[in-house]
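User: I'm new to structure prediction. If I give you an amino acid sequence, what do you actually give back? Let's try with this one:
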Amino acid sequence: MTLLISLFIFNTCNLISPKPVDNKSQLWTPPSISQGMEKAYFASGCFWCVEAIFESVEGVQEAHSGYSGGKTKNPTYSQIGYGNTGHAEAVEVIYDPKVVSFKTLVEVFFGSHDPTTLNRQGPDRGTQYRSIAFYQNDTEKITIDSYIVKLIEEEVYSNKIVTEVTPLVKFYYAEEYHQDYEKINPENSYIRNVSIPRLNRFKAKYPHLLKEAH
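Assistant: Good question. You get back a string of structure tokens that encode the predicted 3D arrangement of the chain. For your 214 residues, that looks like this:
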């Protein structure tokens, strides 16, 4: 009976969730980037965490939070929270290719989250938290695929890697209050208990990649 009630509640929630209606304009416009910078795109759980991790890497100028991998145009945070827009919380990484390579960013991506948990990262569950490595050209795809092969051959993970490797179609910037959220809200309970510990684990694992290391 408890199971039946749970299933009914779950299905009812799905029925009353708002439809992922397209929005007319983007939620936030980022500042222009410096000449010579390039962009890379990844999704690996809460974008507050992911943004802070990439911004700690030498050669990364900035990281922006947003949404990608779905169909709804200009999705909002509340829309993607129901998991029915198809989008994942993602980040746009602005980096200097003369300082840090795309291959290193791929290493940062895989090394800073668990790519074997399907539709989940830490305490966050849902398709919006799934692991995705986006590519913009054949070279990036080959780099990502080759790194996954390396992880499998070295048996880095005991479980199967479920990361999606997919072409970037469109990246939508999240609302302004999400940008640099961890930096601006250090006392937020989620930031203190999830984001900062995750960042510190990454820093301990990859000290040679950090801005502070140079």
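You can read the tokens as a compact description of the fold. Here is one thing that stands out. The chain has one domain: 34-213.
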